[in-house]
Amino acid sequence: MQKLLAAEGEVNVMKEELIQLQPKLIATGKEVEETLVVVNSQTEAAVAQKAGVQAEEAIASEKAAAAKAIKVTDQSANAHVSHPGRPAPHDVHGTYYS
User: What is the mean pLDDT of the chain?
Assistant: First the structure.
């Protein structure tokens, strides 16, 4: 019987502690909700910014590929052209082109 009374006393102490902690728990719950709102908003902004950056990256990649294609075409077109001040290109056998 004493064990039951001791357990009842412990339960009553825990109930009192919970009652005292309840306002703090409610306040903490509200803080968590507010923080989640901010985090969700920032996440949405980050996703939108990421999409914009990816679009810009795609455009930059296209421009880089076009510039590279122009450079390769230009180099191919001018491969055998002699330029003043530069030695004429030659093949592996030492034959010079002009």
Answer: 86
Contact in structure between 39 and 31 (CB atoms under 8 Å): no
Higher-pLDDT residue of 90 and 60 is 60
How many Cβ atoms from other residues are within 10 Å of residue 89's Cβ? 15
| Two structure tokens written together for 24 | 């703090």
CB neighbours of 98 closer than 8 A, spacing ≥ 6? 82, 88
Rounded distance, CA 74 to CA 72, Å?
5
Contacts with 82 (C-beta within 8 Å, 6 or more apart), sequence order:
88, 89, 97, 98
* Residue 8 neighbours by CB under 8 Å, 6+ apart: none
Would the pTM count as exceeding 0.70?
no
Q: Position 59: which residue type?
A: I
Residue-wise pLDDT for 54-73, tens only, equals 999 999 999 999 999 998 88
Give the tokens for residue 62.
Answer: 């296209």
